[in-house]
Amino acid sequence: MTKLSKDQSLIAENCAAISHIDTAIQDKVRKQQAKLTKPEGSLGRLEDLAVHIAGIRQKRDPTLINNLVVVVAADHGIAQQGISAYPPVVTKQMMENFINQGGAINVLGKSIGARLVLIDAGINNGNFEDSPVVSLSIGQGTDDFTHGPAMTRKNAEKAVAAGITFFNNELQNNQIDIVACGEMGIGNTTSAAAITAAITGKKPQIVTGRGTGIDDFTYKKKISAIEQALKINIFDPEDAISLLSALGGYEIAVMAGIYIGAARNRVPIIIDGVISSVAALIAVILEPKISEYLISSHLSPEPAHQIILDRMNLIPLLDLELRLGEATGAALGLSLCISACKLLNEMATFTDAQVAGKIT
Amino acid sequence: MTKLSKDQSLIAENCAAISHIDTAIQDKVRKQQAKLTKPEGSLGRLEDLAVHIAGIRQKRDPTLINNLVVVVAADHGIAQQGISAYPPVVTKQMMENFINQGGAINVLGKSIGARLVLIDAGINNGNFEDSPVVSLSIGQGTDDFTHGPAMTRKNAEKAVAAGITFFNNELQNNQIDIVACGEMGIGNTTSAAAITAAITGKKPQIVTGRGTGIDDFTYKKKISAIEQALKINIFDPEDAISLLSALGGYEIAVMAGIYIGAARNRVPIIIDGVISSVAALIAVILEPKISEYLISSHLSPEPAHQIILDRMNLIPLLDLELRLGEATGAALGLSLCISACKLLNEMATFTDAQVAGKIT
Fold first, then answer.
1. Who is most buried in B51, B68, B179, B215, counting CB within 10 A?
2. Exposure string over A122-152, b if 16+ CB within 10 A, otherwise e
3. For residues B90-125, b (16+ Cβ closer than 10 Å) or e, as one string?
4. What strand order describes the sheet that includes B294-296?
5. Cβ B85 vs Cβ B91: under 8 Å
6. Which residue stretches of A118-239 are H helix?
7. Nearest chain A Cα to B360, which residue?
């Protein structure tokens, strides 16, 4: 038997430490919800959400006060081929925009009172030393996966392990009631579509979307690139590290690690669009119990998204045609989670409010 | 020509004072949105929402700070026939619950920082003198519409006029950037389904739902009551007052009045579930331009809801299986409206943030 590397051990240990969520608590919460002044089930998916979060947190009255939003950014070698509507330099420029509070996620994060953490997982010329950006940079973007693997297996493991360690460290310094994850990375819908095709066996033209808004010519080039990547690379749909290595992005690998860290610590995970959802599926391949910790915030128009969510039996909360990433949809989903928990905790009961119950 | 009554004049004058929304401002907002640091259209329906609100408010940078949530409550004669899962006394008891901050809408309203106003439009034994409830009470609930009209035409007009006057008065004392409307009234899904059938010609079994959660026996009774009401009452689908008189509820009539008042003052209107949406359609029959001022917050499982929204070409923002009423869905929709406006006003532009634009 081969000795595991440090990163491999860290991943294996954290995955092994993940428990099922607490269904006994969930039954208690359902009983409490039946006592609140509303017809049973009339708050629909908000009731399910509160039950879900209670089961994860192992608390009958979960509160979402210390809410973390993470944006993980990285560059992609494939972007050099011009498969995106924007040049690769935009990844770095948008991180600077986030630092200066100018991005959509800054506005939404502030609006819901969440703490925003920015992570450099591998941005070209990333140099954020005098900024609040957390550097987990694995490399200067990935390699172009039409010529060979996007990253080495070692770097894929290093990135996942870095995500786990990041989350565990964060939790030592701050309380985290829930985490919402999103990303920034020019070219990363190409990587997400390629991984989706690799996992599901679906054809590239089925799983590939227009990303940030590409024209027909670029769209065909994007599909060809994915076809080429699937042809020349070696991967096994059941080996998550092989998928990351062949077709991944560093931000996808780091997000998968954050999800492992969150599930290991019983923190609910709100996923964003197609890329953060692919990262979630990577984490679920590594440890299936992680699916119990996932909340899908929204459905994006990227065709791979529905496919990936179906694979994990997740039903998105919102369908607002959002396709920005940056955890923007996840932040809106977080706002619904906050409301769901407040309703559970703050509504009066029929008895307290002296309201007549259902006619039997 | 017959001389109009005071209420008829008030309704006619306020309807006549309603303008189209401002499409020139909307074009300017679209241009501004294209400059913000995100791919064009990538914030999906949130971008459309901001444009919509800007067109109503006639402002390029609309802000939603003074946000009003109104819950209008009334009783229904038909409820005496036991077509609901709850006894009629619950209407009054729930108003008391709202006064004591125990209802779902209290929790959600507080969470988004909205001001909540409660209106008694005709609650049985309504007696809220030492409370913040606004009394517009037209009567002790409506009459049972299986025996004759729910209310007189005069009372229908009085209720609509009271809603208009309420809104105009509110606006003299407070700034109102947006209004979200919902209701409370045991038996009112029966009234809403009956009005839907009357307007659309659809059969009662198509438009009738389970309301607060009734069993098969009660459901059949509910459908029979609606069939009977449609048979014995006289109404004209193009005469909104006749619909209210024959099949209405006082809360539905008052909400229709509030919508007229809001549109007349260029205040965006967020509608809630099936009952507040039926009230919106009543208002739109009175003055079609009101449809331009409506934002549909969510889709409820009540079958009449989709039918009513389709009739007004409204696409709901949320589909969370909410069926509580009380403006709970509208409050969640309001939260999305707030986010949409903040994104428009607070995001950086490509130029300011020095982010490279789209590759041409």
1. B179
2. bbbebebeeeebbbbbbbebbbbbbeebbbe
3. bbbbbbbbbbebbbbbbbbbebbebebbbbbbbbbe
4. B134-135, B115-122, B67-74, B178-184, B269-271, B294-296
5. no
6. 153-173, 188-200, 204-207, 216-232
7. A85
Backbone CA torsion sign across B346, B351, B357, B360: positive
Distance CA A186, CA A85 (A): 9
pLDDT of B250-298, one tens digit each?
999 999 999 999 999 999 999 999 999 999 999 999 999 999 999 999 9
Bridge partners (DSSP) of residue B182 are: B71
Q: State the number of CA atoms in the 13 A half-sphere of A126 facing the CB.
A: 26
Q: Which of residues 35-74 of B touch A (CB under 8 A)?
A: 36-46
Residues of A designated as active site: 326
Residues of B with active-site annotation: 326
**B105/A contact by beta carbon, under 8 A:** no
Chain B hits for A97, CB-CB cut-off 8 Å, are 37, 348, 353, 355
* Displacement of CA A67 from its chain's centroid (Å): 15
* Phi and psi angles of residue B74, each rounded to the nearest 5 degrees, phi first: -160, 160
Instruction: Decide: helix, strand or coil at residue A119.
Output: strand
Helix or strand run (H / E) with residue A120: strand A115-122
- Cβ-Cβ contacts under 8 Å, A301 against chain B: 44
Q: Are B278 and B187 in contact (CB under 8 A)?
A: no
With an 8 Å Cβ cutoff, are A89 and B356 in contact? yes
10-residue averages of pLDDT along chain A (360 residues): 92 98 98 98 98 98 98 98 95 98 98 97 94 97 98 98 98 97 98 98 97 94 98 98 98 98 98 98 98 98 98 98 98 98 98 92
Domains within chain A, CATH numbers bracketed = 67-339 (3.40.50.10210)
Alpha-carbon dihedral B114, B120, B126, B128, rounded to 10 degrees: 40
Residue A356 and residue A107: Cα distance in Å, rounded?
43
Task: Name chain B contacts of A354, Cβ cutoff 8 Å.
Answer: 93, 96
The SS3 of residue A353 is helix
Q: Which residue in this structure is represented by tokens 């969440």?
A: A114
Q: Which residues of B touch A221 (CB under 8 A)?
A: none
Residue with tokens 């749909």: A237
A33 and chain B in contact, CB less than 8 A: no
**Is ipTM beyond 0.90?**
yes
Prediction pTM value: 0.98
Q: Does B118 touch chain A (CB under 8 A)?
A: no
> Residue B353: which of A97, A320, A324 has the nearest Cβ?
A97
Measured CA to CA in angstroms, residue B112 lies from B171, B331, B332 at distances of 20, 8, 8
E strand residue ranges, chain B: 67-74, 115-122, 134-135, 178-184, 269-271, 294-296
Nearest chain B residue (CA) to A353: B97
